[in-house]
Backbone:
């Protein structure tokens, strides 16, 4: 069982335009248990995407430790799946080939990896789209493929970087409900970045409020599952929690 | 040690942000330096590969004797005349082929075929018809410029959405005014792209023509130098050609293309 | 569907038939001197003779051979080099002006120096073609790699792609539309450069055939050569390059016009 531990993480880089060092992330510590769903929420420029990129291994960190299952992170790897805001599907591969990409990299044979891909596509109700190219799908469908592609690789941790920010509001709600359903079925460890407070509370077990590169507060969300917008829209506990997080983020 | 490097880097980044042209000159410095070192070390015989200094000296000499300015002027005038006729004939033809289905059926295959023949293949027969001289060169350049202009104009005219045409009609625009108010501006970004491509081809055609049948011009300068075995002047000619086209393309044509296409959001890049 | 294609093919040929009819009628009618423009019959005859004694085939073969050798050599160097340079945004933005400069010079401008360095013949002409293709394809490959969005490369890395898989699964296919466009443009310049170079620097090939015919006012050979040049390029461009370009760009929804 793999958990994710972040200790005193910080990021400083040199800005050539300003000619000075800039600190984007200050001394952030966070512990995510196996099977937990954690949302990091904060306004744009608060360093949340930088943190995610460091966990994913796309950016080097300049201080502290990132440990996945006790092993330090060193560059990107298949133990941490990533879902991108811009989907980042391979436009030259069909939906099926996109989802089968991770297993292919592990050296899984063609028949076997296509079976895996079909399984995961069914999970997100994408069976029909298997033979199509990403450009032929709507934004919502593309992001479903993005989520499923990351899951099909069976990562220890799933990192999601504002994945629903560039789809329309209706589709976003559907995708959020589907994500909670898939999460309950597969129970992956998830770190989810967003600026949308309601989205964070709706999805998470725990919300981490971030501002100016520092953790403000961690708030546990013990709303019952399965969650749906129909049920939660008028739920007093949901309202109270979103209100609290919103106040935290805005007052900082 | 490290902060010094960072400071230099920071300085360079800010400098190129302020003056973008520095960014396009910088890469040539190591190339010229390498060229200089190679010639100083005499790796190749100097007759085969002269150094930057020799080329600069030859530049000075040719400017002083007035040969270079004259040849340069000849080449530019030929290109300008060719471009003018290419545009003057190409745009109306393109609009005709773009708007009329009949003209399209009759002319489109011919356009594709005659474009494929290519300018330079016309040289021998043009020399028979018009002899060595300005007429032959102008015909070749017009021929080269006209096809990209026509083909892109057709593309532009045909890509104007039908709704835009309907909108103009319902706002009371007559058929003839439509040409000026809707068709031409709608096709303009494509026309400019066509012109840019056409001049790119025209420029090369000009050089080829000057090399083969010329009596003056940069291409002639290079070929004359080749006959005399003077590598310095050939290199000088190549460098002038490159710089000149770089200036024309990135300081004149590309900004016009950006100004029309991107400003109106018609071309997505 | 079949019928539709047939009728559009017929419509495509119709203007040429009209042109040929005009040619057969107008030239004798106005009594044009064959030293200025040939009769259709004499062009056909020149074509048949050229095929019979093998000279036409020889010229075509020589030209195509030079294009093939120069292009293949150029691609073998240009694509790996372009990818290697395009991977780093710093390197690619630094080198872009350099390659734009040399693409401008591509082809024809190299003829004088190529003939000096390699002498008249196969070497000089192949060098000119190599040049025309090499710089444009390298530049386009570099451009293609640098337009692959960073998240796409990151996605592949986080799904476990190693260096080799990154190259074959991401960088090459991602840059392919640009590479194909580059090949198409580069070959266009190379083809013109070939004809120009053959006029000056050799004793076999289509360009040479045209230029020698000019010395003897054999307009039928000149016109024959022009038609052959046109048809060959049209076949190459429309049947090979354009469909390839469309297939990659449209299917993948990667609209990249240059």
Residues:
């Amino acid at each position: 069982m793999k958990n994710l531990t972040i200790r005193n993480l910080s990021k400083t880089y040199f800005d050539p335009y300003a000619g000075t060092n800039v600190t984007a992330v200050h001394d952030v510590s966070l512990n995510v248990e196996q099977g937990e769903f954690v949302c990091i929420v904060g306004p744009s420029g608060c360093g949340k995407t930088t943190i995610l990129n460091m966990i994913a291994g796309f950016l080097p960190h300049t201080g502290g430790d990132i440990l996945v299952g006790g092993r330090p992170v060193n560059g990107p790897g298949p133990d941490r799946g990533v879902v991108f805001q811009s989907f980042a599907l391979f436009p030259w591969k069909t939906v099926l080939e996109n989802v089968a990409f991770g297993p292919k990299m592990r050296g899984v044979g063609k028949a076997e990896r296509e079976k895996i891909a079909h399984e995961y596509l069914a999970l997100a109700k994408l069976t029909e789209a298997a033979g199509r190219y990403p450009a032929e799908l709507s934004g919502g469908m593309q992001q479903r493929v993005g989520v499923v592609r990351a899951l099909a690789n069976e990562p220890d941790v799933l990192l999601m970087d504002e994945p629903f920010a560039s789809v329309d509001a209706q589709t976003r709600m559907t995708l959020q409900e589907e994500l909670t359903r898939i999460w309950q079925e597969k129970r992956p460890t998830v770190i989810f970045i967003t600026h949308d407070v309601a989205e964070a509370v709706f999805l998470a077990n725990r919300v981490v409020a971030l501002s100016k590169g520092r953790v403000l507060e961690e708030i546990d969300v013990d709303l019952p599952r399965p969650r749906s917008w129909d049920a939660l829209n008028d739920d007093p506990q949901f309202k109270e929690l979103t209100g609290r997080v919103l106040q935290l983020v805005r007052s900082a | 040690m490290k902060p010094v490097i960072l400071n230099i880097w920071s300085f360079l980044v800010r400098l190129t942000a302020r003056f973008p042209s520095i960014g396009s000159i910088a890469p040539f410095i190591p190339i010229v330096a390498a060229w200089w070192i190679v010639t100083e070390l005499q790796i190749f015989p100097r007759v085969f590969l002269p150094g930057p200094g020799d080329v600069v000296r030859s530049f000075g000499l040719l400017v002083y004797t007035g040969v270079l300015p004259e040849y340069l002027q000849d080449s530019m005038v030929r290109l300008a005349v060719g471009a003018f006729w290419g545009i003057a004939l190409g745009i109306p033809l393109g609009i005709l082929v773009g708007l009329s289905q009949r003209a399209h059926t009759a002319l489109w295959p011919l356009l594709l075929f005659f474009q494929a023949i290519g300018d330079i293949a016309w040289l021998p027969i043009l020399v028979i018809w018009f002899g060595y001289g300005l007429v032959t060169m102008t015909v070749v350049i017009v021929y080269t410029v006209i096809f990209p202009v026509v083909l892109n104009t057709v593309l532009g005219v045909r890509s104007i959405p039908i709704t835009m045409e309907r909108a103009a009609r319902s706002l009371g625009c007559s058929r003839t005014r439509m040409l000026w108010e809707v068709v031409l501006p709608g096709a303009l970004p494509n026309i400019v792209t066509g012109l840019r491509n056409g001049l790119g081809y025209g420029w090369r055609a000009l050089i080829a023509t000057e090399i083969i049948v010329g009596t003056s011009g940069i291409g002639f300068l290079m070929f004359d130098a080749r006959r005399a075995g003077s590598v310095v002047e050939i290199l000088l000619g190549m460098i002038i050609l490159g710089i000149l086209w770089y200036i024309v393309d990135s300081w004149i044509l590309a900004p016009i293309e950006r100004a029309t296409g991107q400003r109106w959001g018609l071309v997505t890049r | 569907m079949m019928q539709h294609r047939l009728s559009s093919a017929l419509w495509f040929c119709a203007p040429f038939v009209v042109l040929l009819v005009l040619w057969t009628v107008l030239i004798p009618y106005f009594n044009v001197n064959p030293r200025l423009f040939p009769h259709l019959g004499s062009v056909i005859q020149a074509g048949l003779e050229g095929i019979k004694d093998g000279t036409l085939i020889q010229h075509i073969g020589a030209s195509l051979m030079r294009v093939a050798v120069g292009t293949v050599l150029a691609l073998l160097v240009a694509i790996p080099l372009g990818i290697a340079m395009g991977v780093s945004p710093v390197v690619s933005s630094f080198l872009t002006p350099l390659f734009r400069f040399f693409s401008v010079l591509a082809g024809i401008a190299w003829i004088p120096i190529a003939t000096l360095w390699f002498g008249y013949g196969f070497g000089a002409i192949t060098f000119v073609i190599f040049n025309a293709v090499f710089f444009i394809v390298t530049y386009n490959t570099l451009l293609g790699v640098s337009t692959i969005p960073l998240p796409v490369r990151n996605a592949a890395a986080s799904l476990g792609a190693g260096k080799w898989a990154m190259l074959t699964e991401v960088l090459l296919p991602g840059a392919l539309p640009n590479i194909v466009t580059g090949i198409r443009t580069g070959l266009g310049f190379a083809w013109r450069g070939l004809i120009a170079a053959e006029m000056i620097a050799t004793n076999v090939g289509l360009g040479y055939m045209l230029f020698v015919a000019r010395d003897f006012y054999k307009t039928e050979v000149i016109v024959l050569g022009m038609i052959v040049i046109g048809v060959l390029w049209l076949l190459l461009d429309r049947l090979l390059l354009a469909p390839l370009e469309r297939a990659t760009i449209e299917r993948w929804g990667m609209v990249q016009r240059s």
Q: What stands out?
A: The two ends of chain A are 36 Å apart (CA to CA). The mean pLDDT of chain A is 90. Chain A touches chain C at residues 56-58, 75-78, 80-82, 84-86, 88-93, 101-102, 105-106, 133-136, 149-150, 153 (CB under 8 Å).
